[in-house]
Here is the input.
Amino acid sequence: MSIVTDLLAKPGVIAAGEYAYRGDRFSYRGTLSDEHARMASIMCRATTMGVNMESRMLEAFQTRNGLYPPRGWVVHGPDYTVCVMANVFCMLDNAQGSINDMIGFMRQALAKVSSNLI
Amino acid sequence: MATLDELMKLPGAMAAFEFRGSGELLEQRIAYPERINESTLDLLAHMCAANMCIATMQARGWEKVTHMKGFYPIQECTLIGFDWSVVVSGLDRERLKDKDRGKTSLPPFTGVVLANEKADYEAAFATMENPESTP
Here is the structure.
């Protein structure tokens, strides 16, 4: 099974997908329209690029800091959470799912993915 | 407001800090000065301030375009690195804005650096959102 299928099987996940770092492709499953999924993948990719830049800057300033290499990011809203690890994103309903479980699962499942943005 | 000392009680807490929306570091607690110092926290605070702004803009835009609610305002923003994570919250600022619109001096953002192995993100969110409920 793909990680997107695994994520969608988890409680509270309303959508999950993958995007190419170079920005020319994305795929998703869940309760989003094609256009909204495209928009989500563009925002996730842009933020991931920014987070990578920040992490590299921090590493240049202080080597061996634990935020480098970056693995992902999470934004937590009142009802929904967006969790992104490597080039995989998922949207979680806060009332139905566990953020700790989601981050733990994604960290483990994507642990061997290269941090090079290609 | 979650105090820095409360945040330092979280599992795996390495540092806690307060910063302005401009990124200026105001106050900090550091558990392992040999691993993370004030200068690093200062740069991190500027990064976190920028990320909160961008995430808030994206959540606002997302809600406007999709008509999906529940993403805005951003309550916490988290960066996950190889060994550490940093969780920041601006929720107190939103509460003040709701309560007292027009006030020019907003409370600071709060942040905590956690070791990933012990990190309990939901506990960090709860401490930042409901500090009175924490032991």
Chain A has three helices and five strands. The mean pLDDT of chain A is 94. Helices of chain A lie at 3-8, 34-61, 99-109.
